[in-house]
Target: Oxidoreductase
Amino acid sequence: MCQSCHVRTVSTYRTAERNSRDTGEGAAGLTTHAPQASQSVTLPASLDEAVAALAAMPAAVPVAGGTDLMAAVNSGLLRPAGLVGLGRISEIRGWQYQDGHALLGAGLTLARMGRPDFAALIPGLAAAARAAGPPQVRNAGTLGGNIVTSAPTGDTLPVLAALEANLVVAGPGGARREIPVSHLLAGREMLRPGELVGYVRVPLLHAPQTFLKATGRTGPGRATASVALVLDPARRGVRCAVGAVAAMPLRPLEAEQWVASIIDWDGERKLVPEALAAFGDYVAAACIPDPPPPQDGTEPQTLPPAALHLRRTVAALARRALGRALS
Model:
């Protein structure tokens, strides 16, 4: 079931309706307006000022770190009519505690989220931020940009899906509304004209969280697959999200329910290796299923070698992620 990893983290906020979901790094489709020469740059000092600037200039594109936006501009794929810079809005560059949740500013950089104090707060999100490419990308890329551009390989996305985080969206006239991150990623709810993601509300579980990813090369790179896993002892639940294998992170709900039912929540929370392996296989089969049987009674099709390799990768990541969370 769809609910909601990558070198270039995204730092642009898309406020117009998407023409299509990006399959790469979010370079195209940032605005519905035709490319044209940049005409103006606005630098608001508050979230409401930024919303007002977008309302006054609907063709403008909001920009924070610009890691993907500038790549699109430099390659000629995008010529925004104007820019609304978000770098001076201090209120969205930190975090605060609120009713058992952390309210994270959308302007938080990935580098800041990778530091030890943040890792003590939300370890899974910190691990994803540290994995999101080289230092120059992490220093510029922001949490909000990673979410709104919604590149399939965005490292923070499966963690946010597993945490069941919500977005606090700022709109004209000081309006605020909340939507689940998974709804935005799946296209069930979109940002309206003039709206910006201001904050991300994440429940503080005070429980083990893991994030693992596989890349096609040594060192920081775009994920070929990633897995985020969160234990929720209060609800005796396991939440898992798989990234990079589809247009949005996938939640294998039946696998979550099965493994939660066999964990001894009142004891040591240990599982035998066979159970860990079965969970990994369950997750992988749910996210990369076999082809449907043919209706004409011919020989069933099999997955191509690349898909089989990806399934084995997801199974290994899910198995290791659960093992680390339970250790």
